[in-house]
Amino acid sequence: MTPPSNDMNASGVGHFVSQAPFDPYSIEALKPEQERYYLASQWQLMWWKLKRHRLAVFSGIVLLVFYIAALFAEVVAPYNLQTRHTDFIYAPPQTINWFHEGQFIGPFVYGLDYRLNMTNLKREYSEDQQRVQRLRFFCRADAYPFWNLFESRFHLVCPDRNGTLFLLGTDRLGRDMLSRIIYGARISLTIGVLGIIISFALGIVIGGLAGYYSGWVDNVIQRLIEIIRSFPELPLWMALSAILPVNWSPILIFFGITVILALLDWTGLARAVRSKLLALREEDYCTAAQLMGARPRRIIGRHLLPGFLSHLIASATLSIPSMILGETALSFLGLGLRPPITSWGVLLNEAQNINVVALYPWLMLPVLPVIVVILAFNFFGDGLRDAADPYK
């Protein structure tokens, strides 16, 4: 590289000029962090701000794990949903061990023995520490129809041959609780997503009409929202769920509950959309679109909604927990989903008897994934809501 020349001007101040050829690509390498920030898109800024919210990122990972497990429930669950172990009714959770008699042999469980207590007619189980049952991974066990497309036997983890693996115990029919919770996640998590899609569409359309046209349209929609929100939520859910015919198939009941939850959850999102559109419709770009002859549908869809799409995503994320809790509450009360459909609410419905819960407390374990998922959605939604306005 040629050293810069040093020329003196009339004032005696030197000008340092590089004689090297100009390389425009070298500027990119020397671009400061501040310039990178100013040139970034809004979605990049949102992603950078979300990454700094450690709790939201961790919650997003937890939710991703739950949804992947629900998607591949047949593979993740150690047993088929309908597999019964009649010799192990109300069996307690088995503990995973790594060492046997001071020697490391990998993950295993001890076999279970039981005797019937004739005083209280309760099965009393005990570990047989002479029967070591190793866990198998990426193995073949119970057959299942994968997504009802083809038959398979592949599982992520399996019990030892002629052994058992009840990490969360069994129920009154000898069915593995862990497998049923994993299968139940598919229904409980899906009902939230499907419900929010319907609620999202209703909230955007109805709220968009109220915010863009205002006047009597806004008054009618606001009065309708106030009437819907004035009803107590849970009794209204129960009343609408009771309308569903008892002879409906489980699939129809599933979609019926989803629609009921969605039809009652759109009001909050509609008001958020209305308030945003009332502010944005006065902007210059909206007025320019009107003067150029753009139709209201195009103005709302192409110009107004993208302006606060990030806020809508955050609102939708915070609305999914209410859908999950609604399904769980209705199924727990016996007015929602019913067997043979398996959801977290259906599993909790089977633990309503306080005497059964006192004797077999592991039947209440389906409440744990409900709590974890609700907290994860709330933390993730808070992070998205903060990241939705990256300029703060």
Describe the structure.
- The protein is α+β, with helices and mostly antiparallel strands.
- The protein has two domains: 94-165, no CATH class; 179-387, MetI-like (MetI-like fold, Orthogonal Bundle), CATH 1.10.3720.
- The protein has helices at residues 26-29, 33-39, 42-52, 54-71, 73-76, 177-213, 215-230, 233-243, 250-263, 266-280, 284-291, 296-304, 309-332, 344-349, 354-359, 367-387; strands at 5-8, 14-17, 97-100, 103-117, 122-134, 136-146, 150-158.
- It has a three-stranded antiparallel sheet, with no helix packed on it. Strands 1-2 form a two-stranded antiparallel sheet. Strands 6-7 form a two-stranded antiparallel sheet.
- The longest helix has 37 residues, at 177-213.
- The radius of gyration is 30 Å and the shape is globular.
- The model has no long low-confidence stretch (mean pLDDT 85).
